[in-house]
TrEMBL record:
PROSITE patterns in alphabetical order: RGS
InterPro entries: RGS, RGS_sf, RGS_subdomain_2
Keywords: Membrane, Transmembrane, Transmembrane helix
TM segment ranges: 6-28, 40-62, 74-93, 172-200, 220-238, 250-274, 280-299
SUPFAM superfamilies, A to Z: Regulator of G-protein signaling, RGS (SSF48097)
The name this protein goes by in its record: RGS domain-containing protein
Domain of life: Eukaryota
Pfam families, per database record: RGS
Residues annotated as domain RGS: 330-441
Organism in which the protein naturally occurs: Basidiobolus meristosporus CBS 931.73
Keyword Transmembrane attributed: yes
Length: 457
């Protein structure tokens, strides 16, 4: 019977490890997809692989205690949990930075007449003071035929998140995480110097590895994270409504981790497990939540990158094509309707693609030739410095050939009316293929009939 149990455990661990490695590798290869790139794929993959190691450490003792001595469990668990928690915090703060900068980009361009529809302007109907209105709350707008009135008086350079975006970079967070993990390593070395049950020697400890003063630093860290870091993350993510569901995903992950960990610590402190096999509650409070986390962390975004969407526990393949008309005609309808265009722009801010629609509108204003000839060259220069040159505030993703051609014209001081036509067409196609389908799906879920009625198949 013991051999059968061991064989089953080995097979389960092997299959779990294989699927974790394969799905993580595919996730990393598809990191350029919009539904993955804003999830900080580097931190996500590290968290997924760490979770895989934790599952193996929790399950393998069921097959043979000699495979996992106490000091190995202590080291792996004490280092893996900080990596999981820190990666989740880093992803949350990076999402916050993406969102606030996207807000600032939209707010900044509200000052530029070229980003308004030619026959409309925006006025808020919200009862909040203007200083408290989020840029993304553009669903509460009315359109009038008056001249454009700036809604915001800030510039992108004055935005705190934009000025300090280096603090939210992958490299900076990686340094912080490494420093904190190093502190945990130092603590473990100190513990190793004084412990007996968790000592490193040829005779492996086979007692209950879940008890002992050696676990106190690890459990203290869990408590601090659950009562301090998690509330901070929840507080900072309030009002974030990204188009990819990253905020909801992070909420599920942090709540799941915190609830299971705190319940485990409380029950363990109350000695509520009694004579239960310690490996059993390790399995219950580690494997179950981590398996759930892996599904949200890797499987769900990976499925969405292939066009599979999870809604009310059902999987739908390419839902837009069956309900809404994903067509150039519908896209043109939105681009030429002032109200729909502002809603599309609002969604683009949530989708982190606001640069594209702002560049398109700027090019439209230039091509209409509405400005004085004396100001045309200045507008063309400003468009280049804002959207195309390296390190531009609103840098758009153009083909290298297109960028080289525009750079050549600028270097030769050749500014003419149609110099951005090719770039505008490229960005328009990019919006049609990427942002527009997500916009239709978003509006369908929000039951926005003024969009669906005009774009029904």
């Amino acid at each position: 019977m013991g051999d059968v149990k061991s064989s089953i455990v080995y097979v389960v661990v092997a299959l779990w490890t294989l699927q974790s490695l394969v799905t993580s590798a595919i996730y990393w290869r598809r990191r350029d997809k919009d539904c993955i790139r804003y999830r900080s794929p580097g931190f996500t993959v590290i968290a997924a692989l760490t979770a895989c190691i934790l599952v193996c450490v929790s399950v393998l003792p069921w097959a043979d205690d000699d495979l996992m001595p106490c000091f190995v469990r202590l080291w792996i668990t004490s280092l893996a949990y900080p990596v999981l928690y820190l990666s989740a915090t880093a992803r949350a703060l990076r999402l916050l930075c993406f969102y606030r900068i996207s807000e600032a980009k939209l707010a900044t361009q509200c000052l530029h007449p070229a980003t308004h529809s030619p026959t409309s302007t925006l006025t808020h109907t919200s009862k909040k003071p203007s200083s408290q209105i989020s840029v993304i709350e553009l669903s509460d707008i009315n359109l009038t035929s008056d001249s454009p009135v700036p809604l915001y008086n800030e510039t992108l350079a004055n935005n705190w998140y934009y000025r300090n975006r280096r603090l939210f970079s992958v490299g900076f967070f990686a340094q912080i995480c490494c420093a904190i993990v190093f502190i945990h390593i130092v603590v473990l070395i100190v513990i190793q110097c004084f412990t007996q049950n968790f000592a490193i020697h040829p005779v492996m400890a086979r007692s209950n590895c879940s008890v002992g003063w050696e676990w106190l630093p690890h459990r203290l860290y869990i408590v601090i994270y659950a009562i301090a870091v998690n509330p901070f993350v929840f507080f900072k993510l309030r009002g974030i409504h990204d188009a990819y569901g990253i905020r909801e995903e992070l909420m599920v992950l942090t709540v799941t981790n915190s609830v299971f960990d705190l319940v485990f610590l409380i029950l363990f402190a109350l000695n509520a497990f009694g004579g239960i096999d310690p490996d059993f509650y390790g399995l219950l409070f580690v494997v179950v939540p981590i398996s759930l986390i892996h599904c949200f962390l890797i499987i769900r975004p990976l499925c969405e990158s292939y066009g599979l969407h999870f809604t009310r526990f059902r999987i739908r393949r390419n839902p837009i094509s069956k309900v809404l008309r994903f067509s150039p005609e519908c896209f043109e309808r939105i681009l030429h309707d002032p109200f729909l265009l502002e809603q599309f722009k609002t969604f683009a801010a949530k989708d982190f693609t606001i640069e594209n629609i702002l560049f398109y509108q700027r090019c439209q204003a230039i091509s209409r030739g509405e400005m004085e000839p004396s100001k045309m060259e200045q507008e063309l220069r400003e468009t280049y410095s804002t959207f195309i040159e390296p390190n531009a505030e609103l840098l758009v993703n153009l083909d290298s050939i297109t960028v080289s051609k525009i750079k050549s014209d600028v270097s030769l001081e050749k500014f003419y009316l149609g110099m951005y036509d090719e770039a505008q067409a490229e960005i328009k196609d990019l919006m049609f293929r990427n942002t527009f389908p997500r916009f239709l799906e978003h509006m369908r879920h929000n039951k926005s009939h003024w969009v669906t009625d005009s774009c029904m198949a």
